[in-house]
Amino acid sequence: MIKMVVFDMAGTTVDENNVVYKTLRTAINEAGYNFSLDEVLAQGAGKEKRQAIKSILQVYAGKDDEALVDSIYANFIVQLADAYASLEVLPQPNATDLFGALAERDIIVVLNTGYNRETAESLVNKLGWEEGVEFDLLVTATDVDKNRPNPDMILFAMEHFGITDGAEVAKVGDSIIDIEEGRNAGCLLNVGITTGAHTLEQLQSANPEGIINDLLELLPLVDAVE
């Protein structure tokens, strides 16, 4: 029986037009690079953003320079704050309908993200979502010691709600690292969704228990476990 579903935010439950990864790409390229958005998404999607910068530089430029990462991250945070000031943020199609359907089944809804808490809360506030209303808990990259693909954020949520068995948890996300995170937490269902960072083929490479194209397609998967 599934007692809790943990959802990624951007690209999964939140539509912010990839502004974070576009801004990340700009900040990295301003340091003397010329990476495409696809390259940034391929290596950075779902990760804590400092780690995303580090991964992108290591894979595509062979660079392992903490000072450079810190400099790019500082630039990124300033640019992101400016971008969010005027950004229109929308729920992904059927997100609130799905949350309501899960609540009717007494299933806990958790949002988790590779963003820091300030960024994540700004997204939630723009949507008009409230903890305890649309969702039950928000867990961010700055709430735990280790980030995706480590399972710390999911384990944090499980402990918060007194869940001890990963077989009672599902994870849904738009990137390979979301699926890896869920598997590392022992989640029974690890589901990719094609509305965000990674393509169907990329998601398939992580061998999830399911891949969906719309959030409401999650319900049959959850109900099948019941």
TrEMBL record:
Gene3D superfamilies to which the protein is assigned, alphabetical: HAD superfamily/HAD-like, Putative phosphatase, domain 2
One biological process term in Gene Ontology: DNA repair
A Pfam family assignment: Hydrolase
KW Protein biosynthesis (keyword) present: no
GO molecular function per UniProt: phosphoglycolate phosphatase activity
Keywords, comma-separated and alphabetical: Hydrolase
InterPro entries to which the protein is assigned, alphabetical: HAD-like_hydrolase_sf, HAD-like_sf, HAD-SF_hydro_IA, HAD_sf, PGP-like_dom2, PhnX-like
GO cellular component: cytosol
Domain of life: Bacteria
Keyword Hydrolase in record: yes
PANTHER family linked: PHOSPHOGLYCOLATE PHOSPHATASE, PHOSPHONOACETALDEHYDE HYDROLASE
Stated name of the protein: Phosphonatase-like hydrolase
